[in-house]
Amino acid sequence: MTTERSVDAAAVMRLDKWLWAARFFKTRQLAIDAINGGKVHVDGQRVKPSRTLRVGSRVTIHKDGLSWEVEVLALNTQRRPAAEAALLYAESEASRLKRQALVRERRELGVFGADSKGRPTKRDRRQIERFTEQ
Question: How far apart (Å, rounded) are the C-alpha atoms in residues 98 and 49?
């Protein structure tokens, strides 16, 4: 009897469970919300969380302004460490390069509001009011 809970290649698995096991989302509910919101597509089509996923399916995931285009290589019902979860899919080279370029661009632009000193002082508020009245 084996304790490994991986599923063989002929089997199917719910999409929301796979996204959770592959560590794209921290909880199944977050995965379900993303699927229902149209942020996840399987083979180019919008799907429901209960959609069955097979090995070889192409999944597109949009999250936090970034996107992943991956091919399902394996199914696993348990959430494993990130190194093992990465073995469940293969990301396309174009997707990886595009995502890395976006991350690099965001890093170069800096964080919005990072130079802020917190809540505006009375003097700052007066200057803002004068500026917006013009």
Answer: 26
Dig out the tokens for 51 from the structure: 């959609």
3-class DSSP state of 22:
coil
Give the pLDDT confidence of 115-132 residue by residue, as tens digits: 667 888 999 999 999 998
* Pairwise CA distance, residues 43 & 10, whole Å: 18
Look at the block and give the residue holding tokens 């070889």.
56
Could you tell me which residues come within 8 angstroms of residue 12 by beta carbon, excluding any fewer than 6 positions away?
52, 53, 54, 75
Give the Cα separation of 57 and 68 in Å (integer).
Answer: 14
* Domain made up of 6-111: CATH architecture: Roll (3.10)
Cβ-proximal residues to 83 (8 Å cutoff; 6+ apart), any chain: none
